Each structure stands twice: as C-alpha cells, then as structure tokens.
Amino acid sequence: MVEATRSGNGSARPTLEQVAAAAGVSRGTVSRVVNGSPQVSEAARASVLEAVQQLGYVPNRAARSLATRRADSVAFVVSEPESRVFTEPFFGSLLRGVSKELSASGLQLVLVMAWTAREHAQVEQYVRNGHVDGAVLVSVHGDDPLPWRLMENGTPVVMSGRPQLSHPSLPYVDSDNVEGARAATAHLYERGRRRIAAITGPQDMSVGVDRLAGYRKALRGRRGVPRDLCAFGDFSQESGERAMRQLLERDPELDAVFAASDMMAVGALRALRAAGRRVPDDVAIIGFDDSETARHTDPPLTSVRQPTELMGREMTRMLLTLIEGGSTTSEPVILPNELVLRGSV
Length: 345
Known about the structure:
There is one protein chain. About 45% of the residues lie in helices and about 15% in strands. The strands form two sheets. Strands 2-1-3-4-5-11 form a six-stranded parallel beta sheet, with helices on both faces. The protein has 13 helices and twelve strands. The chain has helices at about 15-25, 25-35, 40-55, 60-70, 80-85, 90-105, 115-130, 145-150, 175-190, 205-220, 235-250, 260-275, 310-325; strands spanning about 75-80, 110-115, 135-140, 155-160, 170-175, 195-200, 230, 255-260, 285-290, 300-305, 335, 340. The chain is elongated. It is α/β, with parallel strands linked by helices. β3, α8 and β4 (about 155-160) form a beta-alpha-beta unit.
C-alpha cells in the first residue's frame, strides 16, 4: 500500500486519505489507481488522477516497491573489464539505446560490470536478492552460467547477441552478423582484391563465430583466394594491431583485410602504417560497427553499420514485456546491417 512521504523541510506532503477525500472515493481505490491496478472504473480513475494533480501527491517509492514487489530498476550487465566498457564505442551506443527506451517506463538503469568469477557471483546474488526486476546481458562468453541461473531464478533476461548452444532458449536481439561480414568481404573481392585476410573476434562468442562464418561464405568457391587467412582478436584495438602483424608475417602479399570490429580495424591500420603499407593503395580494410571512430581514422574507415542503439531499444522493449508477464519464448529480433563506404577501400 502506497503512503505519502514528507518533504525535506519537514512539511507533510498530501496523504492518501486527502487524495481520497478530494476525489470522493475510498482510500483503497486511490491505492489501486496509484499502483496501476486495472480493477478501477474509468470514472474513479479520472477523479483520483485529477485529485493527485491538484494536491501534488507523490507516492512513496519504497512503499510502492513493497506493495508491488518490484524494484523499479533494470540491470545492464556487461561481461567485460572496465577498461573496455568505457573505451569501446559499441557499449556506449548500446547503453544509450537501453536508457532511452527505459526513460518512458519510469524504471531506473543499473550498470553492472562482471568480468571475474567473483564478480559474476556477486551479480547473481545481487539480482537474486530482488534489487532489479530484470537484466540485459551483454558480451556473454562461452558457457557462462549466469544467464541460465538468472532465468532459473525467475528473473526476466534478454541477451545482446545470439546465445551459445548451451542457452538456446534465451530471448535475444542481434544484428545479422553473418550477412554483414559476407557483404564486406564480397565487396573487397569485387574491388579486385584477391589475398583477403580476416581479423575475427573471439570464438567463445556468437558474434565472433558468425562474422568469421560470413567472411568464409563470401570467399567460398572463389578462385585464386587463399583459404582461411585469419588471425583472432578480442575486438580491442591492441588485439587488432597484434593480429595484423601476424597476418603480414604469414602473407606479406595480402591486399585486403576484413576486421570484425572498428577497434580492431584501427589497430590494423596502425600496424600497416608501421610496416610501410599504404591504405587503400597496398591494402584495403573494412571494419564492423560503423562507430564514430570510423569517421576519424586516416583514411576514414569503410565499415559495416549495425544499428547498435536500436538494438538496445529492442532489447529493452523485449525485457519490459517479460517483466510485465509477457511470453518468455520471445522470437529473436535480428536487425539488418549496411555497408558504409569510405576511403579505406
């Protein structure tokens, strides 16, 4: 049952009883309206809302949480170290989408970073204790048990990216990573490049697996193209630079690179410059994400644009449906990508 609170200067705010008297209804009716119960007539609801506005009544949030058994908050859980979360544009764009969609719901957003096993255990306990009503899970690696444990506890969960095979029933939102990587690699081939390498992401994540699959799909059956000229990174700039050096050692004549993230492409550009290779004259390069960074590299980076902010909004819509008791077998949302051409090809 919702009660009124007192203002910081000690003066009493309007009470539930005062709202009921002004509206000409019972205290219980006011409580049902404030707590969103459908068991109220439209006439009574209109009277209560008018009285609430006239009196300036503000519900006690803590009391409301007790009454509704809701925390009125959602967790954004990222399974990456802080150094990546705050430096890589993907996470900020995704978070922005989640935040925008939540703003109209009245729910608060809680950012949680969990990289170590200890941090994962803390997150699990935090969610189990009822501090949030649901969770958006980002950058889940391999057989991380956290998504499944939260679902078993009855916590609504939505993932960013296709789940691994161990969690096939988890609802998720993703972009079409296979097609995006295929289109990027095919474009390099169509521009006359033949020794096309790939810097792909970690293979314990579906995004890394799918972008590698797209690269291979584009080159399947092509004549005169080396097979699987690949090096692996973790989507970071440092890993892209390291992978580019490895590829140059393996094939000094390579003339194109598909990098599975813009940050790895930036690292590759640095390694190519250090090796005296001109972009795009000697080596063409395409990234993935179309982050703000892609517009400011030298030369500007051709990249696969994925609608990251929209992904965040779609994840939030799906999660809010689950929180309100909607179907837990939501169909995945797969969003299309677009190849954005710039000077690196």
